[in-house]
Specification:
The chain has about 575 residues and is an alpha+beta fold. The protein contains 15 helices and 14 strands. The termini are far apart.
């Protein structure tokens, strides 16, 4: 009989999920999702890893890609009999004989502030498993009180409450019998279904970050002043250079002297062009994601949807990656086209795949729902092989046939000019460090909020601020890279191609260094699984930032170099 009830609830819930309209006394399914420690948001475990009342049969809900990527594994929790507009008095859910092992598992989860997740009509319900007092006594909550509101035939608000009045003390090493209960209360509301998201802030179990607007504004003003000052100094030096070169001084010095070498193609052109292709693709992903967030496409608490969107946008923008890499490879006179396409496809994906494989293996060994199921993995592989790779190939072919030459304003000699020795403080390492520090200083205040949102239970919802900060980051990166490229050319060093990419992308190194500071000083993350996820995926994010900003830095420098050498008279 219980299995028949489970099947009926499954059918009802499937139809209810489509329109979310219910008749009076219609059964609504409750889904048990997962368990998450407060300090480790990426570490999630199946709900029934702890000795809760199990349903007669484990029927899993069909979920979207975003839900699976977010670690969700929803199970139809048929033990709860919840019907639309039907109040439920305190009712027994089940009575369990907890073994010492069950009590030890509950004890550890409560001491580490684990909370569970349920879903009712797609509304998340989250609450702690138990609590402990100052004496070290650990208590398990045994009753769940549900409060629901409705408007006509729709569920508007759902809340779950636990109470110290319904708890039992856990004694390690002993067995005990525990009776679990629940109740439900329904009430009417005037809130419309379209506005119900804002009516459920308590059950999201996260809070919006209290933004320090003064710090953000102060950071913006400082960056604008520094960038303006840098641009002013560079423009003044350029003006003096143009005046000196226009006077046709007999002894040429500075960047004009290396006009025959400044457009000499870089070494490893295939790798160079692949970086540019991946950088353009990642730039488009950042722009699209921020734009969609600003216009309100994403639900603030639906991180899984954002993860899925990133994957889909990455696959669709692969054509831009292939085109950029292929067209620029043609400018550099490349001939190994197959190698270039394969390198462009794998330059970002392959390191990400290696890191993901290690992290997924750790999650699988720990029994975490953060490990992707085999079906999802095959689907992602199919998406890459059937969409991303063909689009990259098509973009590269189109770039090969439509791309033009570099159109350099100066001819390049066959024999490269020897680069004079530079002072120690103009060494490439110092050059790159300075190039990364200024853009990082432009975003470090906002970066703190982003880290809190990514690796905590708080949300940074003003996406318009993020969009503005992202624009400032691109502007500062372009300005500092151009200025340092000018200083490099001024000491007659014509190897600026690779230096501009490393300088532009140096912010990624500072971001990863900041990750260690955030872990030590700001977070409470612990354990192999959470720390491997944190440092592994932050490495992926910082690598993406390096490729993106490196591309921005190079194209800004290329435009600058073309402009200044096209503005002088060269014999």
């Amino acid at each position: 009989m219980n299995r028949v009830t489970a099947v009926l609830l499954l059918v009802v819930a499937c139809f209810g999920h489509d329109d979310q309209r219910y008749d009076d006394d219609e059964a609504i399914a409750l889904f048990a999702d997962h368990l998450v420690p407060d300090a480790n948001p990426s570490e999630s475990y199946p709900f029934f890893d702890l000795a809760f009342c199990r349903p007669p049969s484990m029927v899993y809900k069909t979920q979207t890609l975003g839900e699976v990527l977010g670690g969700s594994r929803k199970v139809y929790y048929t033990n709860y009999k919840l019907h639309f507009k039907s109040n439920v008095p305190t009712t027994e859910l089940c009575t369990l004989n907890l073994t010492p092992e069950d009590i030890a598992a509950f004890n550890e989860s409560i001491l580490h502030f684990w909370h569970f997740s349920m879903y009712f009509d797609e509304i998340p319900l989250k609450a702690y498993i138990g609590e402990y007092d100052q004496k070290g006594n650990v208590y398990l909550f045994t009753n769940h009180d549900f409060n629901f509101t409705y408007n006509r035939d729709r569920v508007i608000e759902a809340q779950i409450f636990t109470s110290p009045a319904h708890r039992v003390k856990l004694t390690p090493g002993e067995s005990m019998k525990v009776r679990f209960t629940y109740s439900a209360q329904w009430s009417d509301t005037f809130v419309q279904f379209e506005d119900r998201t804002s009516s459920n802030p308590k059950e999201i179990f996260v809070e919006e970050i209290e933004i320090q607007w003064f710090s953000i504004i102060n950071s913006f003003i400082l960056v604008v002043l520094l960038t303006g000052f840098l641009a002013f100094i560079t423009s003044r030096h350029l003006k003096k250079d143009f005046q000196r070169y226009d006077n046709e001084e007999p002894d040429e010095t500075g960047w004009k002297l290396i006009h025959a070498d400044v457009f000499r193609f870089p070494s490893h052109p295939s790798l160079f062009c692949s970086i540019l292709g991946c950088g353009v693709q990642l730039l488009l992903i950042f722009v699209f994601m921020l734009t969609l967030s600003v216009v309100g496409v994403f639900y603030a608490h639906g991180r899984g949807t954002m993860y899925a969107s990133i994957i889909v946008i990455y696959s669709l923008t692969a054509i831009a990656s292939g085109y950029t890499s292929g067209s620029f490879y043609k400018k550099l006179g490349g001939e190994q086209w197959v190698h270039n396409v394969l390198l462009t496809c794998g330059l970002f994906v392959l390191p990400v795949f290696i890191i993901w494989s290690v992290l997924n293996s750790i999650a699988w060994a720990k029994g975490s729902t953060s490990a992707l199921p085999a079906g999802t993995v095959f689907a992602l592989f199919a998406l890459f092989l059937l969409v991303a790779f063909p689009l990259t190939l098509a973009g590269a072919i189109f770039g090969k046939h439509t791309g033009d030459s570099l159109n350099a304003p100066c001819r390049t000699k066959q024999v490269p000019r020897q680069i004079p020795l530079a002072p120690w403080w103009r060494a490439p390492a110092y050059h790159i460090a300075v190039a990364g520090f200024l853009p990082f200083s432009a975003i470090y205040v906002e970066l703190y909020y982003v880290y809190m949102s990514l690796w905590g239970h708080q949300l940074f919802t003003p996406y318009s601020v993020l969009f503005l900060v992202f624009g400032i980051l691109l502007l500062v990166t372009a300005c500092i890279t151009v200025s340092l490229t000018y200083l490099q050319l001024s000491i007659e060093d014509h190897n600026w191609w690779w230096r501009s990419i490393l300088s532009g992308g140096a912010t990624g190194f500072f971001m990863y260094a900041y990750s260690f500071y955030y872990w030590v000083d700001e977070s409470h993350m612990y354990g192999l699984l959470q720390l491997s996820f944190y440092f592994g995926y932050m490495l992926v994010i910082c690598y993406a930032v390096f490729l993106m900003l490196g591309t921005v830095g190079f194209f800004a420098s290329l435009s600058f170099v073309k402009q200044i050498y096209g503005s002088i008279k060269i014999d």
